[in-house]
Amino acid sequence: METKGVKVSIIIPVYNVAPYIGECLQSVMQQSYKGDVECILVDDCGLDESIVIAEQMIKEYNENEGRRTKDDNVRGRIRFRILHHERNRGNGFERFEDAWRNKFGDYFGKASVDREGEFGRDATDV
Fold first, then answer.
1. At 91, is the secondary structure helix, strand, or coil?
2. 122 confidence band (pLDDT: 50, 70, 90)
3. Residue 126: inside a domain
4. Positive or negative, the Cα torsion across 51, 52, 55, 61?
5. How confident is the model at residue 120 (pLDDT cuts 50, 70, 90)?
6. Of the candidates 6, 81, 7, 79, the residue with the CA atom closest to the CA atom of residue 41
7. Residue 57 is part of a domain; what is its CATH number?
8. In degrees, to the nearest 5, what angle opens at C-alpha 87 toward C-alphas 83 and 92?
């Protein structure tokens, strides 16, 4: 993955959030920031289909991005990565520690994915 130009990293811990991960990623994908963004999903060994859903959405996003022309460049490109933990690390900093260490952006934000989060079109707008 090319990291040149990435100024912003969004870190999303993922653990048993299948009902919400789609809306969260949609919000990231629709952000209006014109620069390139890195989005790191941290797979914390959940037991549901969260990562499968995320992988499918990312695949579709990347396929659509490949069809963009210079004229379509309304917003910056989002570069997705998934870091897989070998075991569940629980809540708190441990859940996104690896992403923090491996981020490329100068600035970062953490998106929470849970039933209490309300994701609108611009919930993760940079």
1. coil
2. very low
3. no
4. negative
5. very low
6. 81
7. 3.90.550.10
8. 75
Structure tokens at 37: 């963004």
Answer for the pair 111, 10: CB distance below 8 angstroms, yes or no. yes
Residue 30 lies in a domain: yes
Residue 45 forms part of a structural domain: yes
CA-only gyration radius of the chain, Å: 14
Q: Which two tokens stand for residue 107?
A: 């600035």
Helix 50-65 and helix 18-29, axial crossing angle in degrees, nearest 10: 20
Is 115 part of any domain? Answer: no
What's the number of domains the chain is made of? 1
Which one is predicted more confidently, 19 or 73?
Answer: 19
- Side chain identity, residue 113: V
Which domain covers residue 96, as residue numbers? 6-110
* Residue 11 contacts residue 24 (beta carbons within 8 Å): no
Residue whose tokens read 């993760």: 124
How does residue 74 score in pLDDT terms, banded at 50, 70 and 90? low
